[in-house]
Amino acid sequence: MPGFVGSACGLLIFAAMILRGWLTGNSLEVILSRALAGLFFGVLIGALVGWVAMRAIVEWIDATRDTEPAPSTEPETKTTA
Question: pLDDT, tens digit, for every residue of 26-56?
């Protein structure tokens, strides 16, 4: 999960930086250098956010697994009155 979130954030920031640079009329070198820096830091920040989210989900699953009763494995018996 951290890798997926990191790569998604990095590519989104990369595309946004290219679009921003193109709309402001910057040179190609400036656009690409800023976009690559944005990609690098976006992947780092996204991976960190993905790792935190994964840890939160795992802790929530572990906490709910201990508090909820396990389902019964014995077959149900019908009682007739």
Answer: 999 999 999 999 999 999 999 999 999 999 9
Residue pair 16/31 in contact by the 8 Å Cβ criterion: no
Task: Name the residue with tokens 């951290």.
Answer: 2
- The three-state secondary structure class of 76 is coil
The residues spanned by each domain of the chain are 2-64
| For helices 2-24 and 28-67, angle between their N-to-C axes, nearest 10 degrees | 150
Backbone angles phi, psi at 28, to 5 degrees: -60, -40
Collapse the DSSP code of 75 into the 3-class scheme (helix H, G, I; strand E, B; otherwise coil) and give the result.
coil
Q: Supply angle C-alpha 18, 52, 36, rounded to 5.
A: 20
